[in-house]
Amino acid sequence: MRATPLADHLVVDLSRHLPGPYAARILRDLGARVVKVEEPAMGDPVRQAPPLQRGVSALATSLLAGVESVALDLRRGGGRAVLDRLLAGADVLLESSRPDGLERLTGAAPAEMARRHPRLVVCSISGWGQSGPHRLRTGHDLGYQALGGSLAPVDGMPALPAADLLGG
């Protein structure tokens, strides 16, 4: 059996929608163990993304195959404590909130997480970046394409989620 480059690495995935789970999928394909932390009530919205096959999202089936999942309420101390224990053994934290979102969600800003867990690499995927005038705005692929003028269908085919895939 051929060794995989990330076989001894743990990725904790707090991301949602397409870019983060896609990045996690790539890391998993390279051999990393990926643990996805999801909201208890709904999970990642990608789980409801059409098309659905027998009530299951085809996109989620593809992106989340081989990914471990844990439902944690990070707004409460118990969920945050479990996350902190996960991060103690992790190499990468993947998150996709606005620049202020990680601290609001977990109670710790990226710098605090790095202090607590020195080997942890925090990878933040945010729609408008970590700085600049739009950094606190919510962003999705359709908006980026519309702003950039590339949303129009080509030969009758809808636009691909290029920003989401390239972001991931």
Task: Please outline what is shown here.
This protein has 168 residues and is of the alpha/beta class.
Could you describe the 3D structure shown?
The protein has 168 residues and is an alpha/beta fold. 34% of the residues lie in helices and 15% in strands. It contains 7 helices and 7 strands. The strands form 2 sheets. The protein has a 5-stranded parallel β-sheet with strand order 5-2-1-6-7, with helices on both faces. A two-stranded antiparallel ribbon has the order 3-4. The longest helix is centred in the middle third of the chain and has 12 residues, at 77-88. The radius of gyration is 17 Å and the shape is globular.
Q: Count helical runs.
A: 7
Work out the strand percent. 15-25%
Helix vs. strand class: alpha/beta
Helix-strand pattern = EHEEEHEHEHHEHH
* Alpha carbon gap, first and last residue: 28 Å
Biggest sheet: strand arrangement: 5-2-1-6-7
Q: Radius of gyration over alpha carbons?
A: 17 Å
- Measured as a percent range, the helix fraction is 25-40%
Major sheet description: 5 strands, parallel
**Chain-averaged pLDDT:** 87
- DSSP strand count: 7
Shape: globular
Residue stretches low in confidence (pLDDT < 50, at least 5 long) are none
What order do the helices and strands come in, and which of them pair?
Blueprint: E1 10-13, H1 19-29, E2 33-38, E3 52-53, E4 56-57, H2 58-64, E5 68-71, H3 77-88, E6 92-95, H4 101-106, H5 110-116, E7 121-124, H6 141-148, H7 162-167
Parallel strand pairs: 1-2, 1-6, 2-5, 6-7
Antiparallel strand pairs: 3-4
